[in-house]
Automatic annotation (TrEMBL):
Its EC number is 3.6.4.-. It comes from Arthrobacter sp. K5. This is DEAD/DEAH box helicase. The keyword Chaperone does not apply. Keywords: ATP-binding, Helicase, Hydrolase, Nucleotide-binding. InterPro entries: Helicase_ATP-bd, Helicase_C-like, P-loop_NTPase, SNF2-like_sf, SNF2/RAD54-like_C, SNF2_N. One of its GO terms (molecular function) is helicase activity. SUPFAM superfamilies: P-loop containing nucleoside triphosphate hydrolases. Residues 168-326 form the Helicase ATP-binding domain. Residues 432-592 form the Helicase C-terminal domain.
Length: 603
């Protein structure tokens, strides 16, 4: 009996089917609830134990919306105690369309299949949020379950091995990837393993594009972990202008600046893989470096960054437009579909998940030592409070500039009469920093101190050199030539005793590993939590074997206190997908900052 006949007998009074009399179905089968609606099956994605996804169906108009793992075989189906008529033709067409992509219910999906489902299938695919059914999920035949051997001269952590397997699997499918593990989890070695695998299987060279401050470190890490690869650093005035020279190496390392200058030579090469380090540098899709990268010829592109979004969701669009240009809509449509809101960020995070490897330190690095983060409030001196009030009440300055001057006043070690050298006594925040440094030195430990202003770095370095004559004291900021920064870190690391580096968080906050230090002092707050977190992660990362202490110093009732409150609020938002607020404060936030004064709480 056809489903339409059963439905008609139940709801339209049909009493004869094929010349035979029939009763109302519910009278003959009282234990069944005959639905008046056609069965509606919603495609849903579920997580497999392997970390991948598989496709199932949810009966959205059945009681409790159960999951089913097979398409209806006829034009009617019983689910639990409910009977439904089905549009079998529609289901057959949908199953055939999925089958043309190799998609089978309850079989693990490849990244390419999942992306097609989410972006191109025109199916209203959802993520299943309930309890997963107990069932067997078939692994896809081509899934890579282990890291191909002899890729790197190191023992990978399990999560790193999983990352390399996913990278190689995606490269095999012709996909790029955003490698967005948190700072300190070894993104570099995973990228090196991928390039080693690609070189072994394709023969042509790979390209690494990185900030000029980290190209030397990339060469060092490649030589350390993949000594079988030939490395060429494309840098300096003596660099080659002949593409055939580059083709003779396994890996070429260059900077964003030289990428632009030497675009036409780099475009002449068919790269097997391109690794873009600190990929937040291409967050502006209109920037020249972003445009040049899109014009290069490569089998796969890996964007590497622990902070895929610094300011807005547009940052992620720019990166995805590089690694997966066929999957996102135009930038204008994207901004409409995904505004800078938590719910939009959560939905976007789910839809781009097949293209992203993102693990957090707290999830996978349980072997790291303890880390203690402390926000340390300090009362301003009377002298600073008076200067703070003078700036705050100056009506000749616009609000943002005024906040900038207030930050500098809270950061400076100098007396207000401009004494030179700076007089550090009576500066409560610096005195607290000195206490922390003295404690670290008493334990024979090393310290990183981050300050935002060059003048402050000058003052602190000068004072520390006079105080701690037997310790190693140096700096790492824009005044130190890029080529000298790694040697400066090496000196700091190998010094046999207490040592301190005074750093600018933006100049030294990315691409640098300084595990020798286990005390970190943030002397001046930053607007962006990513800047602060990256700076802290220079020390707290794989390879660190001592407890790490991170101190954020700030003056109470000043712009510094509100900056730290704002940073914490942005971290809460970041927990919702990939959300990030704008880096600079809004007009309302500026007004709130300028209402607060340390005058009543100074000492």
């Amino acid at each position: 009996m056809k489903g339409i006949d059963v439905w008609s007998a139940e709801y339209e009074g049909l009493q004869e089917i094929g010349g035979s009399k029939c009763n109302r179905p519910s009278s003959d089968l009282p234990h069944l609830d005959f639905s008046a609606d056609l069965l509606q099956l919603q495609p849903v994605l579920l997580s497999a134990d392997s970390g991948g996804s598989y496709l199932a169906l949810r009966a959205v108009n059945a009681a409790d919306q159960p999951l089913v793992d097979t398409w209806p075989a006829t034009d009617q189906k019983i689910i639990g105690s409910q009977w439904f008529a089905t549009d079998q033709g529609h289901f057959d067409r949908t199953a055939k369309a999925l089958g043309s992509r190799g998609i089978v219910l309850s079989q693990e999906l490849s990244e390419a299949q999942e992306l097609w489902l989410l972006w191109h299938s025109e199916l209203d695919v959802e993520y299943f949020e309930g309890e997963h059914p107990k069932g067997v999920v078939q692994a896809r035949p081509e899934a890579l379950r282990s890291v191909p051997g002899e890729l790197v001269d190191a023992v990978l952590y399990p999560y790193q091995a999983t990352g390399v397997s996913k990278l190689t699997s995606m490269a095999t499918q012709g996909l790029g990837c955003l490698l967005a593990d948190e700072m300190g989890l070894g993104k570099t070695i995973q990228a090196i393993a991928l390039m080693s695998w690609m070189t072994r299987n394709n023969g042509s060279p790979s390209l690494v594009v990185a900030p000029s401050s980290t190209t030397a470190n990339w060469c060092r890490e490649l030589s350390r972990f993949a000594p079988h690869l030939s490395i060429y650093e494309h840098a300096g005035p003596q660099r080659t202008g002949d593409p055939s020279v580059l083709r003779g190496f396994d890996v070429v390392v260059t900077s964003f600046d030289l990428l632009i200058r030497d675009e036409f030579m780099l475009r002449a090469i068919k790269w097997t893989a391109i690794s873009v380090d600190e990929a937040q540098n291409i967050k502006n899709p209109q920037a020249q470096r972003s445009q040049v990268l899109k014009r290069l010829n490569s089998r796969t592109i890996i964007a590497i960054t622990g902070t895929p979004i610094e300011n807005s969701l547009t940052d992620l669009w720019s990166i995805m437009a590089l690694v997966a240009p066929d999957h996102l809509s135009s930038l204008d449509d994207f901004k409409i579909q995904y505004p800078d809101e938590a719910l939009a960020a959560l939905e976007l995070g789910r839809r781009v998940a097949p293209l992203i490897i993102r693990r957090r330190v707290s999830e996978v690095a349980d072997d790291l030592p303890a880390r203690t983060d402390s926000a340390v409030p300090v009362h301003a001196s009377n002298l600073l409070a008076l200067e703070y009030e003078r700036i705050r009440l100056d009506e000749s300055m616009p609000p943002l500039a005024k906040v900038g001057y207030l930050r500098q006043a809270c950061s400076s070690l100098r007396c207000l009469d401009g004494a030179n050298p700076p007089i550090t006594t009576g500066n409560p925040k610096y005195e607290r920093a000195l206490q922390i440094i003295a404690e670290a030195f008493s334990r024979d430990c090393k310290v990183l101190l981050f300050a935002s202003f060059t003048s402050t770095i000058d003052e602190i370095q000068q004072d520390l050199l006079s105080r701690f004559t037997s310790a190693f004291v140096s700096r790492l900021d824009g005044q130190v030539p890029i080529r000298e920064r790694q040697s400066k870190i090496d000196e700091f690391t190998h010094f046999p005793g207490p040592a301190i580096l005074v750093l600018n968080p933006k100049a030294a906050g990315v691409g640098i590993n300084i595990q020798a230090a286990n005390y970190v002092i943030h002397f001046t707050p930053e607007w962006n939590p990513a800047t602060i977190d990256q700076a802290s992660a220079r020390s707290y990362r794989r390879g660190q074997d001592k407890p790490v202490f991170v101190y954020s110093l700030y003056y109470k009732d000043t712009v510094e206190e509100l900056m730290l409150e704002r940073v914490q609020a942005k971290r809460v938002l970041s927990a919702h997908g990939l959300k990030a607020a704008e880096e600079l404060p809004s007009t309302r936030e500026l007004e709130e900052m300028l209402m607060r004064s340390p005058k009543g709480s100074s000492i």
